[in-house]
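Sample 1 of the test manifest.
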Amino acid sequence: MNWCDYPGYWVGSEVLQNYGCRMAGGLWITFELVAISVVLGFALALGLAVARLYGPKWAQAAINGYTTLFRGTPLLCQLFLVYYGLGQFRLFWQDVGLWWFFREPFYCALLTFTINTAAYQAEILRGAIQSIPRGQFEGALALGLHRWATLRHVVMPQAMILALRPLGNELIVMIKSSAVASLVTLIDLMGATKLAFSRSFDISIYLYAALIYLVLVEVIRQVWDKLELRLTRHIALR
Amino acid sequence: MLDKFALLGFGDGGWGAALLQGAFTTISIALATLPFGLMLGLIVALGKRSENIVLRALATAYTTVFRGVPELLTLYIIYFGIQILVQQVFHSFSIPPFVAGMVALGVVLSAFSSEVWVGALNAIQKGQREAASALGLSKAQAFRLIVFPQLMRVALPGLGNNWMVLLKETSLVSVITLQDIMFITTRANVVTKEPFLFFGAAMLLYLIFSLISAWGVGRLEARANRGYAAFGGATR
């Protein structure tokens, strides 16, 4: 017996035992999707938020349009547009040598999730930077700090603490939203669960999947709370 | 290129009418879910603030569960779950997808909106209830006449957010065969093999709904805050 057969064996659920390994594999896909897209999205969002606030006018307008578009439309719709819509231009992608990327549902989901979460995270970071009091900028200026140095050493460390909680919420939202990846034939946790249900017609498999997602989200919530407590121990936030 | 756009039109072989029908379904399910979800959310919020420890634990467990489980999974569980439960009593019964979608989205909305309600309820000063009770109002009267009218103003930004999330979540009901925007565009894609055009159109429709919603919520907030402008309070 593989390790992934045991949970089903312990709780005495035949369907969970039969599909335990598939669901473990699906959980790994979900994990990969969320971890990579949230980290890439964060890197992207940092640049976007700074450019949105201090960049040239045209960049500000473009980033504003980007965040409005991706925060104003459903993730499912974006995913279909990337996977089916961009896949329509197969000949073009083959010409530029990118077809291997747009052919794979995994890469398409990764791209969509990254773009989507970057839009949300950019807005979170922008809000956090904007709520840093003006005096901090002026103080840094008075000390002769360069604009970049001000941002890096004075503003960002404070803004990140403010952004911590909403960023944690965004991570949780991404874990939940990643379930839509199952609708473009990807076997993530949700996809594996659907597969198990369509073969066994045992509704309890959905409940086990719900439990797994729930535990995942709760663990992250707890870890994030601890993280926040540790990072803010020098200031009395609460 | 132009004949491609004719596919979105209302002429022969055009999908314009079907898309409008889909847009109507999307709006209908969102509007039908809203009051149900908000009312349930308020009840859950009152449960969370109740003095009864069992009620409090139940309400907390409810929000933890429905905020932690993906909406798609909740939708499947309610759609198939109710189906199987009811079929054990009445044979050959199928639950309308609209009802299943409404219940699933409403339950999720109630979990999220209950957080907003709790925050708003906490923002109402204790003195308001005490004064109401001093005037001889019952608890229910105090809530209806004193607390609730003040509640809306504080809760509106959060609830507006909930509405925007709900609007986007309705795209999921296409998986239980409800013929919303996503369902129609998916079918149009199968027939015409023009996914970029149709999913692009779907994006545009959702974007328009979101922009209108943002504008509407802003107007509502301005209206709810109109009494506070004189104090230089939070107004738009």
